[in-house]
Amino acid sequence: MLDTIEEETWELRLYVAGQTPKSVAAITNLSRYCEEHLKGRYKLEVIDLLVNPQLAEGDQILAIPTLVRKVPEPIRKIIGDLSNEERVLVGLDVRPALRK
């Protein structure tokens, strides 16, 4: 039986500023969504702009926290603490995992 789920690895980059409540919430929420909907098919890079502010320019980050989907293309961005799961999944164009 063939698996119909695409095996492309998703590349996600989350820009935060230190350990603010919004940054911590965004990391927690995104990690949960990835494990639930993209398990084994994603790479998540968290970039703290207090440590590496120069990295904001490459992805044109204007607000934080900001999530950037690098792969699959096209690039998509979501700003905020990622607390609305449906909005995040729609924004990233993730198909919800099929329940068995």
Describe the structure.
This protein has helices spanning 21-37, 85-92, and strands at residues 10-16, 42-48, 66-71, 76-79. It is α+β, with helices and mostly antiparallel strands. The chain has a single domain (10-92), classed as Glutaredoxin, CATH 3.40.30.10. Strands 2-1-3-4 form a 4-stranded mixed β-sheet, with helices on one face. The radius of gyration is 14 Å and the shape is globular.
Write the layout of secondary structure elements.
Layout: E1 10-16, H1 21-37, E2 42-48, E3 66-71, E4 76-79, H2 85-92
Parallel strand pairs: 1-2
Antiparallel strand pairs: 1-3, 3-4
Quaternary structure type = single chain
What is the name of the CATH class?
Alpha Beta
Strand order of the largest sheet: 2-1-3-4
What's the story with the biggest beta sheet?
4 strands, mixed
Structural class, from secondary structure content? alpha+beta
CATH fold assignment: Glutaredoxin
CATH homologous superfamily caption = Glutaredoxin
Rg calc: 14 Å
Basic shape: globular
Order of helices and strands: EHEEEH
CATH architecture assignment: 3-Layer(aba) Sandwich
Average pLDDT taken over every residue: 88
How many domains, as an integer?
Answer: 1
Instruction: Report strand %.
Output: 15-25%
pLDDT under 50 segments (min length 5)?
A: 1-5
Instruction: Give a count of the beta strands, DSSP E runs of length 2 or more.
Output: 4
- Count of helical segments? 2
Report the helical percentage.
Answer: 25-40%
**Termini distance?**
16 Å
